[in-house]
Every structure is written in structure tokens, then in C-alpha cells.
Design a protein that fits this description.
- This is YpeB-like protein with protease inhibitory function.
- Residues 1-22 form the signal peptide.
- Keywords: Signal.
- This protein is of the alpha+beta class.
- The chain has one domain (25-82).
- Helices cover 23% and strands 28% of the residues.
- The chain contains 1 helix and 3 strands.
- A 3-stranded antiparallel sheet has the order 1-2-3, with no helix packed on it.
- A hairpin with a 5-residue loop joins strand 2 (59-66) and strand 3.
Length: 82
């Protein structure tokens, strides 16, 4: 029983930690402002890049992953010209 409680606590901690480190969309991101992007033709699990210029002039590259329901999720961001 103690092992089950420990395992449950560990799973809850990991779920909360992944949400805490989620990348928030910025102006220019495909999912900024709660926008839901859907890619009907893209296979689930595939990744693609989106490049744009931020308000301060920095070039930003973002990586998105296509979910099973064909919505996209922001998984990485890199500032190119900083």
C-alpha cells in the first residue's frame, strides 16, 4: 500500500511539473491568444517549425508537435537574432 501511495504521489508531481515548464505562446505564435490551429493533413506526432519576428525585432523559431486530434502544441522556442 505504501508503494502505491508513493507511485501516485510521483505521478501527480510529474504531471504538475510538466505543466509548470510549459512554453507560453507569445505574439506571433500560432497558438497565441488561445487560438487553436488544426492541421488535417499532417500525421499525428510530426513536428514542424514556425519562424517569425517578435515585437522587439528578434527572429523567433518555434517547434510545434501535431497531436492525435490534429491540433498543434508548442514544444520549443529559440531566439535566433538576440
Amino acid at each position: 500500500m505504501k508503494t502505491l501511495a508513493t507511485a501516485t504521489a510521483l505521478v501527480a508531481f510529474l504531471a504538475g511539473a510538466s505543466m509548470a515548464f510549459a512554453i507560453e505562446p507569445i505574439p506571433g505564435s500560432l497558438t497565441y491568444g488561445g487560438h487553436v490551429s488544426v492541421l488535417e493533413e499532417a500525421p499525428a506526432g510530426s513536428n514542424f517549425q514556425h519562424t517569425f519576428f517578435a515585437a522587439n525585432g528578434d527572429r523567433v523559431k518555434e517547434v510545434y508537435r501535431v497531436n492525435v486530434d490534429h491540433t498543434v502544441e508548442l514544444v520549443a522556442r529559440t531566439y535566433v537574432d538576440r
